[in-house]
Each structure stands twice: as C-alpha cells, then as structure tokens.
Amino acid sequence: MKTSSLLSLWVAPFLLLPALTAAAPDAGVFDALHRFHGHRCGGSILGARLGAAARSALGDEVSKGKVRAVYYATGCPLDGIQVTTGSTLGNGTIEVKDRKEMRLRLSVEGVRGAVEARPTELALALGSESKVLTKKAKGLPQGSPERAELEARVAEIFARLETAPDGEVVLTTLVR
C-alpha cells in the first residue's frame, strides 16, 4: 500500500525508531571515551549512547556528507557525543544550545531530515542515582566498606548504561 507524501510528512516527525534490540556500542568506544573525558560518569556515557544511537538511526546517510550535531545542554554528555558522532567543537560540526535539555539532533549535510535522541526515563534515573552515590562515596574514607559498596553500585550502573540495548536507554525520533 502506497502512502501519500503529505501523510508521510505529517507522520514522520512522530515516528519513533525504537531500536529495542539494537546493540550498545563496543566496549572500546567507552574506553576511548573515558580516556578523552578524564573520568567515568553517567553523563558522558549517556552522551555516547545518544550519539551512537542517533548515528546508527541515520544509517547509510552518514556516508553522504558531514555529520552535524546540535545538543541542547552543556556538560559531560558533550564528550560522549563527540566521541561517538565525530562531530566536535573543534571541527565546528557541533552546536550547543544550553536549554538544559538532554536532547541530541543529528543530521547529515545535504540530506533532508534528522534524528533526535533522548535518554529514556530509566537512563535518566540511573544517571541521577550514579551521581548521588558517587558524591556520597567521595565523602567516605578511602577503603571503607561503605565506600566500596557505593562504588560497586556505581560501577554496576555504568555497566548497565554502557551495555543495555538502545531501546532501554535511548529514544530516537526521525524528524523532517
């Protein structure tokens, strides 16, 4: 059944690309991210997941031109986005609009449309939990059992954020 182009233009902005079974980025990506960023944190990991999912959703289009990114906040996620998309502040292909919104819009120069990626509620909750637990752990004596327990929980959260299928941590939407 053929749909009209008018209908597809109306529906496309609301089309969610669930990617429920899409694989997480390779562990090497997170190793590179941690070296680049300087520490492990939920923000940089989520940024990497947003960038990788958006780039994946663009599919073959990424080979047709320069990838451009717009991110609607500041902070650690920017480093993850830079590592996974190749769009960087240095090469001028990422724009930051500080609207305090963890949202990435990724497009390819010369190609109509874009993909937006946002963290799921679960991802936001895990990121917040890791931040709170990290702060608590830093306030405890080095080597204490309580600190070790908190650090272990944070490591579990990071591992989940890094390895969960895209659909658990990222929502991607095609926009025209």
How many structural domains can be distinguished in the coordinates? 1
Q: How many individual helices?
A: 7
Q: Over the alpha carbons, how many angstroms does the gyration radius reach?
A: 18 Å
Global shape: elongated
CATH architectural designation: 2-Layer Sandwich
Q: How would you describe the overall organization of this protein?
A:
- This protein has one domain: 60s Ribosomal Protein L30, Chain: A, CATH 3.30.1330.
- It is elongated.
- The N terminus is likely disordered.
- Helix 2 crosses helix 4 and helix 3 runs parallel beside helix 4.
- The protein contains seven helices and six strands.
- The chain has 176 residues and is an alpha+beta fold.
Furnish the topology, listing elements before pairings.
Layout: H1 5-11, E1 16-17, H2 27-37, H3 42-58, E2 67-71, H4 77-85, E3 94-96, E4 104-108, E5 114-119, H5 121-138, H6 145-163, H7 166-169, E6 170-175
Parallel strand pairs: 2-3
Antiparallel strand pairs: 1-6, 2-4, 4-5, 5-6
In a nutshell, what does this entry contain?
With 176 residues, this protein is α+β, with helices and mostly antiparallel strands.
Keywords for this entry:
elongated; 176 residues; alpha+beta; disordered N terminus; 60s Ribosomal Protein L30, Chain: A; 7 helices; six-stranded mixed beta sheet
